[in-house]
Every structure is written in structure tokens, then in C-alpha cells.
Design a protein that fits this description.
6 helices, single chain, mainly alpha, 82% helix
Length: 211
């Protein structure tokens, strides 16, 4: 069936404020990935290790989002779909890490956990704040907002886990928090995937016509 392209809207111009916000979030997340990777290994903390992978995944997501800002809504939704799959996959990876840590039975070092958790929380609050204005945008914008929001929630949980480990000497608070973070990744990934699929369907014909 032929389609009429006379009413096809012009591709949206990249939002300069959104681009700046993405760069800020990208730099913050890349730096915190290194900090938590080293700190998590030193403290034997599953939640810090999981959070470091989350920071890395978010940095990659922000970089990809920057790359597709000038693309059509269909291709931006396609990238968001891929990011949603990555977010959900991260949740399953963390679950596997929790099982491995439980089998190893090494309790984490609470002071290091707490200190890095506070630093990570500050970093993610800044990221979430600069991205907050774009939380109701398309699926691509929504996905980057959800990343920072989930990270901030996860950091609060890491701090609480550090307190629990310090008070009990048990590794269970650390593992429980890691499982919570896995759940957040699975739920957020599902939300992004659902919205991205809808946007792809709505904009597929428009994208073909515009080309």
C-alpha cells in the first residue's frame, strides 16, 4: 500500500540542553564505574560490584543516546529497545553474581561500602537532577532518566546494606541489596522495551516515507 508523505513531520532537531545533560551524566558515570569497580573488588561487595557494572552500562547508554539524537524517532526508539534489553540483561547478570557471592561466603568490608555508596549517591543525584526535565520525553529520553533514577535508589540501598553488614557482620544485607538492584534493572528494562516497541510501530511508516 502506498503511503502519503505530504504530512510527514520534520525530524526533531537535537535538544541542546538534553545533549549537555547527557554529557554530564556520561562523564559522571564513567568516573564512578572506575571508582566502584576498584572499591567493590577491594571490599568484596556484590552490591558495589553490581553498581559499578550499572555505572558502566549507563555510561554506554548515554554515549549511544548522544549518537542518535539527530536520528528519526523510529531509529531512536530502536536504540532505546536495545538499551531496554541491556538493562534487563543486567538484572539477570546481577542475580548470577549474587548466587556466586553466596557460594563463596566472603563478607564485605562495610566502611568501604558505605563511603563509596555515599559518593555514588551524590554522583547519581546530580545525574538524575540534570536529566529530570526529560523524563517524559520519547523512549530514548525516558531510558536515560530511568537509569539515573534507579541508580540513585540503588545507592541508598547500598548505604543501608553497609550499615547492615557493619552491624551484623553478615553478607546477607549486601546480597539482598544486589537482588533489589537486579529487580530494578529488570522492571526498568521492561518499561523501556514496551514503550520503544510501541514507538517503533507508530513511527515505522513515517520513517519510510521521510526517506
Amino acid at each position: 500500500m502506498a503511503c502519503s508523505c505530504s504530512s510527514v513531520p520534520e525530524p526533531q532537531k537535537p535538544n541542546s540542553k538534553f545533549r549537555t545533560a547527557l554529557w554530564i551524566a556520561l562523564i559522571i558515570n564513567a568516573a564512578m564505574f572506575i571508582v566502584e569497580l576498584i572499591g567493590g573488588a577491594y571490599a568484596h561487595s556484590s552490591s558495589l560490584w553490581a553498581d559499578s557494572l550499572d555505572f558502566f552500562g549507563d555510561a554506554v547508554n548515554y554515549g549511544v543516546s548522544l549518537a542518535v539524537l539527530s536520528a528519526s524517532l523510529y531509529w531512536r526508539a530502536t536504540v532505546a529497545l536495545a538499551k531496554g534489553i541491556v538493562m534487563a540483561t543486567f538484572g539477570f547478570v546481577v542475580i548470577g553474581k549474587v548466587i556466586y557471592a553466596y557460594v563463596q561466603g566472603i563478607p564485605p568490608e562495610a566502611i568501604t561500602m558505605g563511603a563509596i555508596g555515599i559518593l555514588a549517591l551524590i554522583a547519581n543525584v546530580i545525574s538524575a537532577a540534570v536529566l529530570y526535565a526529560f523524563r517524559d520525553g520519547d523512549s530514548n529520553m525516558q531510558s536515560v532518566w530511568l537509569c539515573s533514577r534507579n541508580d540513585a535508589i540503588g545507592n541508598v540501598a547500598v548505604i543501608l546494606a553497609a550499615v547492615g553488614v557493619f552491624g551484623t557482620g553478615s553478607m546477607l544485607p549486601d546480597l539482598i541489596v544486589a537482588m533489589i538492584m537486579a529487580g530494578l534493572g529488570l522492571v526498568a528494562g521492561y518499561q523501556v522495551i514496551q514503550r520503544a516497541r510501541l514507538e517503533r510501530q507508530q513511527n515505522k511508516i513515517v520513517d519510510v516515507c521521510s526517506n
